[in-house]
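Hi R.,

Here's the chain you asked about this morning:
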Amino acid sequence: MVWLVASASPHQPLAERLRPRTLAEVIGQPQLLGEGMALRLAFESGQPHSCILWGPPGVGKTTIARLMADAFDAQFITISAVLGGVKDIREAVEQALLARDGLEQRRTIVFVDEVHRFNKSQQDAFLPHVESGLFTFIGATTENPSFEVNSALLSRAAVYVLQPLAEDDLRQLITRAQGIGAVPAVQAAAAERLIAYADGDARRLLNTLETLAVAATRDSWPR
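And here is the predicted structure, written out as tokens:
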């Protein structure tokens, strides 16, 4: 995953300011997003399908889900399985019905973050709506879906495995953060230490870089 150099608010976290806005701005995950690869073909098909994005933190699961909604001009609804429950699922169904039956007749993508945190009955609540095509379901998980996602839901969703970001991808993140003036110049040795610490997690890298940049700015204030 790479992060867009966007005209976002400087008050947003750095990771959000540099989030990709189009598939062309994404790097990494070539096994899924390279030419002719499965997830790239899904974007190019014109027809979204339910899927589960499995991978460690900070590798682009949420970004890919958002981009899929943008690609298909779909309403994007996010549910956190850590904080949400059946009430949130019902509200998502209501919003999907309104979008489908409204003047614009829009598709809906329901993105469930940390889907493995939902219990069996909560996961089952999605089934009739996925089967009817009311919305496209995208789940994100850091756990093996074969063990953490109900077999009924799993059978209705393609599973895509995301990998930690490569060191070169993380170097590009540092360069892009510098390119929008969000952080000062970083010495090569310091950058390598940051990359090693991030361990393939873009969010960890950018959050740490932002924290260090703020500290460096404060240290430069006149006393």
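One quick note: The longest helix spans residues 202-219.

Cheers,
M.
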